[in-house]
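DM between two lab members

TW: hey, do you still have the UBC core domain-containing protein entry open?
JB: yeah, one sec
JB: this one, 876 aa:
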Amino acid sequence: MAAAERVFSGEFDDIASDDEGDPQTPDSTSQGDHSEGDVSMLSDGDEDVMSENDNEGFELDDFMDEDGAAACLDPYANVFFSKERTETLLEPALKSIFAQIPIPNGEDNAGQTMRVRVLSRGEWMSGCPEGNEQSFLFQLYEKLTSGKFACPNSCGHEFDRAPEDFFALLPDFPAYVSHLERHIQRKCPKCNIKVCSACEDPVREPSPEKGGSPDGKESKALFHCPTIQGAILGVALHMIEQEFGSQLRIEKPTGVPPAKKRKTSALGKLLNTMQGGDDDSSDSDGGYGFGGFGGRGQAAPKGTGYSGAAHEDRSGEIAAEKSQFLKDQTTAKLLSQVRAYLPAVKRGHTTDLLVHPTALAHLRRRSSFVSDLLRNDSLMDMSNRAEIYHALFDWLEVVSSHEVLASMLAMPQMRAVKAVPGPDDDTVEVTYEGAPSPRELLETVVIQATAALKGLSSTSAPEASDPDSDELDPLQQSLAEAQKRKEKQRENAVTAAADASDRILDARTEIDRLLVATKGRAFVNRMLESLPRLYETEEDQPKIETSATDETTMKVYEEWAQRVRFRYCDLHDPGDPSKIKYAHAYNNNIQTLVGTRSLAIAKELAILTTSLPAAWGSTIFIRVDDARVDCIKAMIIGPEGTPYENGCFLFDIFLPLDYNHSCPLVKSMTTNGGKYRYNPNLYADGKVCLSLLGTWSGPGWISGKSTLLQVLISIQSLIFCDEPYLNEPGWANQAGAYSANVRRMVLVDAMANNLKNPHFPFENEVKTHFRLKAKAIRAQLDRWKAEDDGKATNRDYFGVSPPNTSSGASSSQTPFDVAAKHLRSLLDELDPVAPSMVDSATPSASAGPSTSKAKKTKAKSGAKGTRSSSRLKAKK
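TW: and the structure you got?
JB:
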C-alpha cells in the first residue's frame, strides 16, 4: 500500500520503466505552465496499481471468462452494493493546475491563447472505488499525460502530448469538444499516416454508412476508440457535477465557531427540498408558521400578530423561480450535449459496444445528478420544470437501452456526505454513504405517473353543441372561437401530460427488462419486492404479537399506513340504493356541477399517492371517488405529543370547477354532532379557519401554485398543534385548562365515538389504527390522567368551566375517568389484553416508541417539498 501511494505521488516519475527509452523529468512531460503534481491516495482495499505500460488502456480479456465468451454483461456482477454501507477514504486535496491553450474555434483569434484549469489526477480518480476501477483510471490518466509517444509506423517520429490536451476544463462542453478535436488526430510528418493521440494507433477512415452521433453533428474522430470515450465522459461528468453544485465542501476543524446563520446556495436549497429536507435557516418564514410560535416548547412573543396581510410578498419566490428556470435551461443543454457521447448500441461504434472501464467508473461515481432529480418525487414540479426533466429522461433512455449501463441504475449509490482535512495538508478524509439507487427513486415517480394516467383517462370536457356559425352574431362567433382554442390548448396539455407519464413508465419497463438480462429474474423480483407500491385492494390485516417490541409495532403500523393512505373508492352513500347521493358534506355541489376531471386535479392526486405523511406520530388518509375525483374524504390522525394525539379527525373536501385557480372547500366532520369546538380554528359547525382556504386574513391561496397537500399539512401541523390555546389571543394564561378540555373532547369523540361507530369510508382504517396502537394509547391515557384538571368538558371553551355534571361519574370519578374507562373497554373488545398488563402499564414501559423517536417521526411526516404561508384564524 505504501509503495502504491509513493507511485501515485509521482516519487518515481524520473525512473524509466524497462521498455522506455531515456528517462524523462516531470517538467518534460508537459508543455504547459503546470503547478506541482497532486497526490492520490487509495483505501486499503484497492488492488495494487499496474505499471504504467502493462496492459495499457483496456483489454477485452477483462470482460471474458476462461472459455473466451463474455463472462457477464454486468461488469460489477461480483461487487456487493448496499445502502447501509459507509466508507471513509483519504483523497488528494484539490490543487489547481493551469495551462495555456489556443482559443477553441479561434480562426479569428489565430495565435491567441487562454488560461484554463486542468483536471488533476486526484479529481479524476476521486470517488468511492469498486474492483479495479482505480487501476484503470490511473493507467488512462498517466497514459494521456505522459508527454510523448512514438509513431505506430516505427518511422522514428514522436508526437507531443500534454495533460491539457485531454483534461482542460473549458467554460462549456462544446468548447471542450472543439479543443479536443484539435489534438485528437495528428498526421505524422515522416510517414504521412494519421494517428490517434489517445490510443496511439493509426486512424482508418470509417465507412460512409457508419459514424457520428444520432444527430450527426459530433466529430467521428471522437468515436475512434474507447480511450477517447473514457476521457470525454470523465471530463464531461465532472462538468455536470460542477453545474449541479455536487462538490463537497471541506468541513472546518473543530474549535472554529459556527457562523451565525447557515448560508445555503439556491441549488442547495433546491436539492434539500428534493430530498424532503427543511431549510433550517433561523429566519425562514416560508413554512407553516404564523408568527414563530405555536409549536412544541415555543412561547408567544409579545406583540405577535394573529392576522396579517391578505397578500404576501412573493417577489423573492418569483425571482428564485426565474433563476431556477435559467439554470435548468443551462443544465438541460449540457446534458443533451454530453448525451451524444454516451455509449449507444444503435450507433454501432466500437466505443458503443465495448465500453471503456473508466467510462463505466465515471458513470457509476458521477451520476448523482440523476438521483438528485429523481429524488424530487413531485410530478407537478417535474411538469413545471419540464426542460430539465425532459433532458433527464432523454439521458435515462440512452442509459436504460444499453445492457452494460442499465445495471448501474439498480446499484445503490455511494455519495460523499462529509469531508474533513486529512492527516497532512495534501489529503482530505472523505466519508461516503450508501444511498437509494436511481431505479428505486424512479419507482415513486412511476407510481405517480400511473395515478396520473388513471386520472387523465377520464379527463374530458362536456360535449358542447356546435351551432351553425351563420346563426351567431360576430360577438358570439368570437367567443365560440376563443372557447375552441381554449379546449384545444387543454387537449394538448392533457396529451403532453399523458405522453410524459407514458415515457416514465417506458423507462421503468426498459430498465427492468435489461436488469433481467444482466442480473437475472431473481434479482429483479427481490428489487421489486423492496420498492414502494400503490396498493389497489385491501391486503391482509397487519398483525402484531402481544410480546412485540415498540420498534416492531412502529414498523408494522407505518408499513400499513403507507399501504392504505391513498385509495380510490365509491363514495356514494351506502344507504342510498339509487347510487345518486354521496356520503359527503358537499353532496349538493357534487350533484349540481358537472364532474369534469381537470389536468390540475389529475397531477395533484398523482402527487398525493406518494407524498401523504404516513408515520407513527401522525398519518393522513385520503379517499377519492372513482368517478368524481373532485369528491374527496380525508382523515388526519392527531399528532403525537399534542392534545389531539391519536384522535381520528375527518374532513370532507370538494374541489370546485375552477380548481386549482381557487381553493378547495373543506369541512370538519368530527364535531360530536355539531357540539364540540376542538380548536379556535375548528368550529362546531365544521368551519375550518385557515387563510389558505380564504376563511381568515393572511396569505391566501395562490392560483396555480397552492395545493391540497398544503391545506392538509397546514391542518395537521398548525391546527393540531401541541399548544392550541396560542391560536386564541389572550388565552395563554389558560393554557393548561384549555389543553385539558381539548384532551377530554378528543377522548370522548375523536377516539371513543369513532372507535364505536367508525365513519364511512374509514371503518377499517379506524379499527386498525386503534388495534395497532392499543398498547400506546393505554399508556397515553395514564399520562393524560396525570395532566387532567378534573373539570367537566366544555363544548366551546372560553375559560370558565361548568359544574361537574357528567352522567355516570361517582364522587371519586372525574369526567376524564369515565371517558377513559369507556375507551379502555372499547380497546379491550378490539384487542383484549390481560388486566394485569393494563394495570402495570406505565408511560415508560408501554408508551410505544420513545419520545425522541416520536418527534423524529412527526418531523418526517411532513410532506416532501410542501411549502405554505398559511395563517390560522384567531379571535380578537
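TW: got it. The two ends are 74 Å apart (CA to CA). DSSP finds 28 helices and 15 strands in the chain.
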